[in-house]
Amino acid sequence: MFDFSILFPSVLNGITTGAVYALIALGLTLIYGVLHIINFAHGASLMLALYGVYLLKQHWGVDPYAALVVMVPAMFVLGYALQRLIINRASHGKDENILLVTLGLSIVMENLALLFFKSDTRTIDTAYTLSTVEIGPAFIALPKLVAFGGALVTAAVLLLIVQKTDLGRAIRAVAKEKQGARLMGIDVDHVYAMCFGLGLACLGAAACFLMPAYYVNPQVGNGFVLVAFTIVVLGGMGSFAGALLGGLLIGVVESLGGLYLGESLGQVGIFLIFIAVLLLRPQGLFGAKA
Amino acid sequence: MKDLRNILIFVLMVASIPLWSDSGVLLNFVMTSLYACLLAQAWNVLGGFGGQFSFGHALFFGTGAYVQAIAQLQWGLNPWLALPLAMALAAAVGGFVGAVSFRYGLKGSYFALVTLAFAEVFRIVATSVPFTGAGVGLMLPLRESAAHMQFGSRAGFVWLMLGLVTIALLVTAWLRHSRFGACLQAVRDNEDAARAVGVNPFQVKLVATVLSAALMGAAGAFYLQVYQYIDPGIAYGPHTSVEALVGAIVGGMGTLWGPVLGALSLHILADLTRNLFGQLPGINMVIYGSVLVLIVMFLPRGIAGLGVFTPRQWLRGQKGEK
Hints:
Chain A is an all-alpha fold. Chain A has eleven helices and two strands. In chain A, strand 1 and strand 2 form a beta hairpin.
């Protein structure tokens, strides 16, 4: 039962899945860390991005990895517009309102997708969908390996933006002290919207890496949204390193849970971790004590 | 007293509908509207008066429905006896979730997330264990008689539902006028200040959760009696949670008639679109979501916040309190 030749592929599989989870969680943690809002529409936005990749491939034959060039800016613009035009206006400065508005947005997105695409599950075929790479005793699907690399690169880029650019400095300033940043001449609404845009751009990237090995249907975001929240909470709200490690950890837990408890019950492990962390250690494993 | 009088007028008016009309369409509309009112009013007890936004109220709805089904199918209980049991067990689940959440000081977004996660855990467990019929669900055998809470006409269901809605309205009226309700609203508005004047926020929020869960459990039990079928997706899926919270928010949180109004207007809106666009999948939810966003954006106090429902103010042309 604890045989290395079964355990190792399962763990490896979990790590590669976890990297994509981490990518989704990075966007969420950025939005939370700066805006202090929980973006409930995160899963639905990912679903839209997945449909974007699907349509590009089906109608124009664009390779999912080439679609990065389109999807990342497109999702950025969507995020910027959503925050600037809807979320910011509807919030009236109250967190509860943002929670409700993003919930409303996710319901609208999900059901518009249901209207246009029906509830069918769709996949795309690429030359490399079924390719595998041998690592020790394990075979890992090539798209998953690419996704793993892509997630790490995206995380590095995000970190660079936040640490080294003027925008990043503005973001950190707003996250720490909103009023002070405003007095220093920072356009807070613009920084908020940029953050939201960056968060959704991460989803654009995640969708391109996910699609070759995954599927899309209108409800696909639901599966990811709680997982992403779990990772963000586990890693400590607003912590990039935490999101990355949390993502990998959750990937492995899910993979091992699936191995020992069966596919559907394995998911329970994630939610139980989520509830336990929220209750017992809300600052997360790596977060500072509030 | 005024509240009690208004509730009495409302109940008498609705109760008389089946007496002067036997139109199946109308009675069905009244029944489903009342059902939506109960969901919204149940959410309102915790969300509106307690300020604790639950995104997983389906947790209590589903528990009520499953208990109602299992009590009849496996324990051979009469549905009239199963109903209080369903409410009690839903309340117990509410007590558990409330106790752990509030013990560890979860509020705002965290409380919303934890309720959502609990609903999801219950959904997955319900698809995996045998006594809930797993993914196939549970079907209630057809036994048409009032003794089995399966009425031959919709009129019976309308009266039953009206009874449950009346309980919910009375609970809400009690929250508006009792010492407990005042404590609950104080905790909602400022927990630290409430604690400073001697209110126990943990206890107050816990009681509100239990009450809210019991009402939600009644809605679940009712759902089962009408449609005679339940599966994990219907029971614990997000649809019911959304319907409950949107109804309360659209109508006006923390008011007596707001959730009734909200649920009714959403219901009419959904019916109208169904007539305009036909049975398109998802169109209802698109409307619910859009209305939610628009209401939060333009009418944060809900329809009741407009103040049109105090006739005297309306006649004077005042906009109500700001």
